[in-house]
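Narrative of accomplishments. A recurring question from our advisory board has been how the design workflow behaves on a single, concrete structure rather than in aggregate. To address it, we present the structure tokens for one chain from the evaluation set, followed by the sequence designed for it. No filtering or post-editing was applied between the two.
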């Protein structure tokens, strides 16, 4: 009887963890209210497409002693969890710069290697409606 209870508990835990991982929305809209005088609109981001190509830790990060120790339960899942608009936080990297270096930097690296990539130009991501 105890083995069945243990089995069911493990199964429930596995289903819960798997559900959390795949529960990400396919497409999200990245638009920070922190930027008062935006020149361009936010960006539509296809999370599922990126998830199929790169590892979560290629974008999400939490560096401790030079090592990325991020995990999805860390409470640091958004750039704005660590980066401020002005960049006067412990990272020293402003929020907009963090977005751009992470996104455009990766796209440019794929392009440099001759691999298919996403957009690189401002108006390709920041599409005016």
């Amino acid at each position: 009887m105890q083995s069945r209870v243990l089995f069911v508990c493990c199964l429930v835990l596995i289903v819960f963890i798997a559900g959390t991982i795949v529960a990400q929305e396919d497409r999200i809209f990245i638009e920070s209210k922190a930027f008062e005088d935006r020149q361009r609109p936010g960006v539509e981001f296809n999370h599922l497409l990126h998830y199929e190509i790169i590892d979560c830790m290629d974008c999400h990060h939490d560096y401790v002693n030079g090592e990325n120790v991020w995990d999805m339960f860390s409470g640091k899942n958004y750039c704005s969890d660590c980066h401020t608009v002005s960049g006067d936080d412990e990272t020293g990297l402003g929020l907009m710069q963090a977005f751009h270096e992470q996104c455009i930097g990766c796209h440019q690296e794929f392009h440099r290697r001759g691999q298919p990539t996403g957009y690189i130009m401002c108006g390709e991501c920041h599409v005016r409606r």
